[in-house]
Amino acid sequence: MENWQTQKTYIKTFKDEDCAIYTEDLSVFYGGTIQKLFDVSLGFKKNTITALIGASGSGKSTFLRSLNRMNDRVARVDGKIMFHDLDVNQQKINVYELRKAIGMVFQKPNPFPKSIRENITYALKANGQQDKQKLDQIVEESLRAAALWDEVKDKLDKSALALSGGQQQRLCIARAIALKPEILLLDEPASALDPVSTAKLEDTLKQLRKKYTMVMVTHNMQQASRISEYTAFFHLGHALEYDTTTNIFTNPQGEITEKYIQGSFG
Amino acid sequence: MNSKRNDRIATGVIYLLVGIVILLLVGIIGNILISGVPHLSWHFLTSASSSFEAGGGIRDQLFNSLYLLILTLLISLPIALGAAIYLAEYAKDNWVTQLIRTTIEILSSLPSIVVGLFGYLLFVVQFGLGFSIIAGALALTFFNLPILTSNIEEAIKGVPQTQREAGWALGLSNWKTIRGIVLPAALPGIITGIILSAGRVFGEAAALIYTAGQSGSTVDYSNWNMFSPTSFLNVMRPAETLAVHIWKVNTEGIIPDVTVVSAATSALLVIVVIIFNFGARALGNWLYNRLTAAKIK
């Protein structure tokens, strides 16, 4: 694999107030000493989709999972994660509240083995929302936003496991946005889906851009170029290049980025 | 063509070995059922056992077995559930946890007669409980806890990690994730584990001989006062179970129809355990469907 030191980094920066969330020198260590991520400073512009690309093991998922503190139990995360002028990478931060504001959708669809309705209402009820009418309203809104309503409105009380993989994944998105987050983190959301379901999912994500800031890890470069405005390229734990998606794919600055885009490795 | 021939030989040997196992199982269970079932009758199930004459039943032993089982589960289930949740969800992977796991494994292979004698010394003598249902239930709890704990732990561990992550990502606390998502998903496995361990408890004899005792005292099924010595619910009375009854009539029984009584009792025991096993599967499936609302039309 290419040595990262052979390439200078080209990182686009935004004004802090334009970012929904940004990191300063974020490093991640596993088992105390094994460093997986090196001083990554990236900002994510409000109401855009940013794609994180890079080979397996490049640290893009590790980075993504640090943003909503999902790495808390498995790794040490150093550096700052600024969200609403607050460093949320601090011990005193209430991670449960943070995760409501920063939703996450995973690689493999993981609906709960409950009904479609309960998949969405479970977390709301746990947060104290008991009003039946309000819950019904949120269920409909979220499912509409995830472009799933028309397909499931007649079987809300059926098992979520009976849905297709693509529908399950959109249900997971609906479940995340039911909590009204500001940011959605997507960890290879389409990698387990067939092309038709993937296209539907991408349409859904494009629609959601109006209301949410999205950061998406993907292995699929066509997907990155189809739906994202900005793209960050990760290599061996370093963010090497970050720019508009158009620039990354048509005019990459770095040699390694270019090689990766062309498919010479990864 | 050599590999083809070897493959056929290997397959043949495997089939043969499986055949031997099945033959043995069918032989044993068939033998017990064939020699016992003809003697099972309503009269046998509903009359008290006799000490000297032929024609006694096993009403009290059957009730005692079920009562002991229920008490044992009432005591052991909460403890096992807590321990299993700790081991599956909270325990760090270090030497303490390894030590706990090893201890549980050793305990689960402890001979039941040892558990019985330990129970005798501790509960019957030391705590002064005497030969009683409660002493038997406590001894059975010792006997049951390791298996039940590892059964439940396996069921909880069987829930995919992605389910926990889904819960955390929705801002649910670790405990809420466990209680609301992991445990319901593991429930069918937990139920199966409980019922399978119940089968073991139900058929246990050695651990009870010196704890719950043998002498079937007079039991009055219309007396609901738990504290009355003759009440069927009294936990301080000695109680002989089905398995202990089989042991007793065969070692010191002086009734003329020993073979009939022990054959019929054995058959009943086997039938109840078989019902437990099939019941476990059916209940597990039913619960899973209920909980997941998996009604696919």
From TrEMBL, chain B:
Pfam families: BPD_transp_1. Keywords: Cell membrane, Membrane, Transmembrane, Transmembrane helix, Transport. InterPro entries: MetI-like, MetI-like_sf, Phosphate_PstA. It comes from Lactobacillus apis. Its main location: membrane. The chain crosses the membrane at residues 12-34, 66-87, 99-123, 129-148, 181-202, 258-280. One of its GO terms (cellular component) is plasma membrane. Residues 62-280 form the ABC transmembrane type-1 domain. It is a multi-pass membrane protein. This is Phosphate transport system permease protein PstA. It comes from the Bacteria. Gene3D superfamilies: MetI-like. It is found in: Cell membrane. One of its GO terms (molecular function) is phosphate transmembrane transporter activity. GO terms for biological process: phosphate ion transmembrane transport. Belongs to the binding-protein-dependent transport system permease family. CysTW subfamily.
